[in-house]
Structure formats: C-alpha cells, structure tokens
Write a structure and sequence with these properties.
Layout (H helix, E strand, L loop, with lengths): L4 H8 L12 E7 L4 E10 L2 E10 L2 H14 L4 H5 L3 H7 L11 H18 L2
Antiparallel strand pairs: 1-2, 2-3
Helix pairs in contact: 1-2, 2-5, 4-5
The structure holds FE2/S2 (inorganic) cluster.
Length: 123
C-alpha cells in the first residue's frame, strides 16, 4: 500500500494531537470493524473553530485523516466545518490507498459529534 507524501507526513508528524483542556465540544467515535477510535476536541468562539485537537488510536490512515481534519477545521465557521466531507479530507491528503478510504470517516463523524456537543453545551 502506498501513501502519498502528504498522508505519510501527517502520519509521521500528526498535527494537533493532544488532549485539550479548554474544549467546549467533544466527539468520540470508533469503528467496530477494526477497533480504531478517535476523540476530537474543538474550542469554538463566536461560531468559529479556534482550536481543534484529538487523541487517536488506529491505523496510519486514521491518524493522517484525523490530523488533516484538525488542520482543515481550524478557523472555519461551524457551518463550513459541517460541510466538510470524507472525500475533502482524502483529497487534501492527495488520496489514500485503495481500501483505506473508509478511515476518513472517523474524523468527519467525530467532528460532527463535537459540533453537536458544542451546540448542546452552549444552548
Ligand atoms: Fe480502522 Fe483505518 S482500519 S480506521
């Protein structure tokens, strides 16, 4: 399986991989088929995602896609973040090896949950 240079770099040097103390939205998802799991944290101010981080346990593709998700959402409005799709993450990584595309679902699902949690917390 060949990873692109971008995907390999995000796997080897994951961006924003830390537990966030100041988050106001969190989303946890797991893929029962492979056992991978992801906890994503966001800090939202004035409808903008000012900070995004995560803790991930999973395959190289899940780490690379979590990393890219955190990079892509930073500075976006909640509406813009909600419009991000799995394919956007895959495209930003320059593609994923065949059979690994589904791993991008973790980041997107966790992001949507985190935004939902934020909206519930801040009603
Ligand atoms: Fe489980 Fe990649 S194989 S998310």
């Amino acid at each position: 399986r060949m990873y692109t240079k971008i995907a390999y770099d995000h796997f080897m040097n994951p961006r924003n991989a830390y537990l966030m103390d100041s988050s106001n939205g969190e989303g946890q998802v797991g893929d029962p088929a492979c056992g991978d799991s992801l906890m994503l944290f966001i800090r939202v101010e004035n409808n903008i995602i000012e900070e995004a981080s995560y803790l991930v346990f999973g395959c190289p593709a899940s780490i690379a896609t979590s990393s890219m998700t955190s990079v892509m959402v930073k500075g976006k409005t909640l509406e813009e973040a909600l419009s991000i799709k799995e394919q956007d993450i895959i495209d930003a990584l320059g593609g994923l090896p065949k059979g690994k595309e589904h791993c991008s679902n973790l980041g997107v699902s966790a992001l949507r949950k985190a935004i939902k949690t934020y909206k519930e917390n801040c009603k």
